[in-house]
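Assemble and predict.
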Amino acid sequence: MIETEILVIGGGPAGLCAAVEAAEHGAKVLLLDDKDVLGGQLIKQTHRFFGSQQQYAGVRGIDIAGILIRNAEKFGVELMPGATVTAIYDDGVVLAAAADRTIKIRPEKMVVATGAYENTLAFPNCDLPGVYGAGAVQTLMNVNGVAPGERVLMVGAGNIGLIVTYQLLQAGIRVAAIVEAADKVGGYYVHANKIRRLGVPILLRHTVKYALGKDGVEGAVIVRLDDKFRPVTGTERALDVDTICLAVGLTPLTELLWNAGCEMKYVSQLGGHVAWHDEDMRTSRGDIYVAGDASGIEEASSAMIEGKVAGLNAAYMLKRDTGLTSEVREERLKNYHDQLYRLRRGPFGEKARVGKSVLTGAPMPAAGPIESTPHSDATFSKGARVVIECEQNIPCNPCEATCPHGAITVGDDIVNYPVLDPARCNACGICVVNCPGLALFVINRDYSETETEIMLPYEFLPLPNKGDRVDAFDRKGNFACRATVSRVIKSKKFDRTALVSLVVEDKYADVVRSFRVNGGQKTERTEKAAGDVPDDMDTVICVCEDVTRRQIEEAIDRDGARSIDEIKRLLRCGMGPCQGKTCQRLIMQILSRKLNRNIEEFKPQTYRGPMKPVPLGLLAKANNEEKD
Amino acid sequence: MKKKTDVVIIGGGVVGTSIAYNLAKNGVTDVVVVERDTLSCGSTGRCAGGVRQQWSEPSNVRLARASIDIFKRFREEMGRDIGLVEGGYLLCAHTDEEAERFKETVAMQREVGADVRIVTPEEMRDITPYLNADGMILGAYCPDDCHGDPFQTTQGYAENAKRLGVDIELHTEVTAIKKKGRRATAVVTNRGEIECNWVVNAAGGYSAEVGAMAGVDIPTKSYRHQIAVTEPIRRIQEPLIVDFCVNIYFCQTAHGSFLAGYGDDTEKPGHNVRSTWQFLQEISRRLTALVPALRDISVVRQWAGLYNMSPDAQPILGKVSDEVENFICAVGFSGHGFMLAPITGVLMAELITYGETRTLPIDGLSIKRFEGGVRSAEANVV
C-alpha cells in the first residue's frame, strides 16, 4: 500500500500541471498515467499551441509535454507511467494495474484528470477495419510512426479533424475530403485555411452514409444533409478511400468519478456528464478534485490552468501544514482565474463559459465587448511587410510576443485581433514562423518591377531549393501560377517551421498562399461505384459485444427497455472491455429519438471496476504477496 | 397503474415474475408486479445463475429437481434463450471429513432421485481438464445441473406474464401495506395505492423490510456477496465448480466469460452492494489456484449482490396466516433464489389459485418452522 498526500490520476496537461502545482507547495504527490509515455494528448500534437505565453503558446504540444514533465521532476513529483487506475474504492483505496503488477494507493486527496474519449458515429459498416477515431490515427502516426492508410476521408471539421488532416498531409497521406454535418467549420478558420490551400475540400452539410468494403474499408459513401441534418436522397457519392477517420467530438472520461460516487451532472456544453465541481475544482466528494477535459471538454491551455487550480487547492486542504499560506493561495488563484477568464472570453470559450456556469449554478462571467473586425490590411502597394490573415477571436498572441520590433499588438485581452504597426514591421518573418495558425505572410511588393515575393510558413518535407520552379496555389487550393523559390530559411530557432519565399507576378500577390514541391496532395477526388446499400439496422452499435441497431431497437420496442442498464442486461452491450465508452452515447441517442425524450434524461450504465481489464494473475500475485 | 387488482407481487426479480407468469397461466391474470427500479436490478441480476440439485436438505433437492425440469423446457415454453449451459455441477472435497459428508449427501440425493455420483480426482480432470485437482480427495458430480442467464430468464417470465395479462409496474416503490384486521387490503406505492386480495412478498434482499410493512416479522437477513467476471474465452469448462474448502464457486457462461464468487463469513448483514478490492484480489488468487490456465485472462468487472439468508438457509414459502392471512412469502432463498424461482412460481401460483400446493408439499418451508429454533440447516451454501 502506497501512502501519499495527493494522487493525480492522468498525466496529460491538466494532471501534470496539478501535480507540479501541488508539489511546488510542498505536497507529496504521486502521478499515475495509463500510458507508458506521459503527456496525454500533448505527445501527439505536432502543431504549435494557441493561448498566451503562460500556457506555452507557440510551442508545439509535444514539447510542452517535455516542459511539464521536467517541471514535475524538478519539484519531486513521483511519476508512474504505465499504470492504469482501475477503481476508487469506498475505503479510499485506489487500485491501479501496471504491466507486471497491481498497485494500491491510499491518498489523502485525489485529482482526477483522466481527459476524454472520442465520440463515434454509427453508420453501416462502421465496424470495418480502417474506421478510426482521430485520436487513434494520431497515435498511430505520431507515437508509433505507422501510416493508418493511403487515402482518408475525415469526418468532422472541428479543430481535431482539421489538425489531424494537416498531420496526415504532412505524413504524405492523401485526404480525399473533410465532411462536416454543420453548416460551418467548427474549428479555427486558420486551421481550416491551412488545409484548404493544400487542396483538401471541406464539404459542409455532408456526412458519411456508409462504408464500402468487406474485410476492410474500400470506400466511403458520403451524402449531403438538409438543414435538419437529414440525408438528401440522390446526393450520395462514393469516395475511393481506405480509411475513415472520425473526429466528431469528445466526451469527458468520468467513469472513475461515477464509480467513486461523485455527484454527476449532464451539461451538453461540457460534452456530457461531468462531476459537479466548484471554482476550486473540488467535487461533491471533498477529497476528489477534477481538472481538464474530465471536468468539461475544452482546450489544453485551459486544462493546464484548471490543473493548477486543482493542485493548489488539494495541497492547501491537506491535513499537514505544507507552508502554503492562504495569502499565497489566494494570490495564485486570482491569477489562474484571471487566465481562465481571458481564455474563455472569445467565441471559442463560450461553451466552457456557459457550461461551467450551468454546472455550478454560478452566474456566467460577462464576456465583455470583443473587437469584431480584423485589422488585416493587404492593400498596401509599396514595400514589404507582414499580412495578417487571422479572422477570428482566437485566444492567442505569439505574433505579438515574438515580434522583435513590437510591430504587432494583441493586448492583454488575448482574444483580440492582432494589430500591425506597418512603420515598425521590417518583414523579418519571425511572426510568420511563430503563428500557430500559419496565418501570417510577408509580402514584398518591391521584389522587382513586375514581381512580388511572398514569404510562407512551410512544414513539409522535402524542402524546396532556391531556384526551384513550383506550382503555386490560392487559398482554396486551386492552381494559380508557377512560381520561383527565391529563399528558404531554416533555423533551429524556427523549430521545424521553414520560411519559403516565392516570386510571382504582381497580380498573384494576394492570391498565392501555398505551393507544392512535387505533386503532393492532388485536388481531384477519385470517385467509385457506390455498391449495394447496406441496411442501417445491421449497423453495429456495440463493437465489443457485436450488438446491432436492430437488436437495440427491438429491446426498446418489443422488450420495453427504457434505460441503458435495461438494454445492457438484455443484449450485453456495454459489458465488454470498453464498458460502454464507445456505444453508450449512441444508445442514448437511439433511446432519445425512439422515446422522444431529451438525452440528458438517460443515465449512463452503472460503472463497475476494474475500468480496464486486469489479468487474474496480477491480482492474485498482489494478494499472495500481502499474505507472505 | 391499476387501482384495484387480485394479486400484488412485490419484487420484479426472477421469483416475482415467475409467480406472476404461473398465476396468469393458471388463469389468475388480474395481477400487478411492482418493482421499485427495473426488472432483475436486485439479487437476480447480480447472481451467477447456477442451478443445482446437490443440497444437504432433501426438500431443497426436491425443489431444485423440479426447477431444473422447468429450466430445460424454458426455451420451448417461453420462447426465449436463457443461455443455459447444461454442464453439470462439480463439488470438490479436500478432507476426509468432507469426503465422508459428500458420500452421505450423495446417497440421500440419489434416493430423492437426483443423478449424482462420487467421482475420483482423475474423473474430475476428465470432466474438466483445466481444474487443478491436486489435494482433492473426491468430487460429487451431477451432470443434470446447469447454469443460465438470470436477466433473460426474468425477461422471459415477465414478457410471457404480460402477454397473458399481468401488469408490471417498474419504478414503483412500495412504501406501506394497508391492513384491516388480519388482512392486507392495499399496497401503497410512490405512484399510488393498489387495493388487492393477495400480497406476495418477493422482495429478495428487502424481504424483512416488506414483511415489516405488513406487520410480519420475517427472520431473514441480507448479506453482501461479491462476484468478478472475466473477458470471454473459448469454452474450457462445462460444469459449475464449487469448492467449500477454498470457499469459491465459478463457472464459464454461455458467453464464454468466467464468473467467480465467494461468501465472506466476516460480512455483517446489511444492504451494502459496493465492491471491494480485497474481494477482487482474493477471488483472483482462489480462481487461479484452481484453474491456473486463467492467469492471463483479465477481469472486466466486479459487483456485489445480496444473499437473503433465512435461519436455516432454506427458503420461506407460503402463507403467514397467523399475522396476515392473505400475505404470501417467497423469500429467504439464501443465495439460491434464481435456481428455485421456476418451481417457486409454480407453487405460489397453486397456493393462490387453488388454496394449496399440488406439485410439491411446502409445509416444511413455512415461516412457522422457526418457532422453537432451527432444526436442520442447509449445509451446502457457498
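Chain B has a mean pLDDT of 96.
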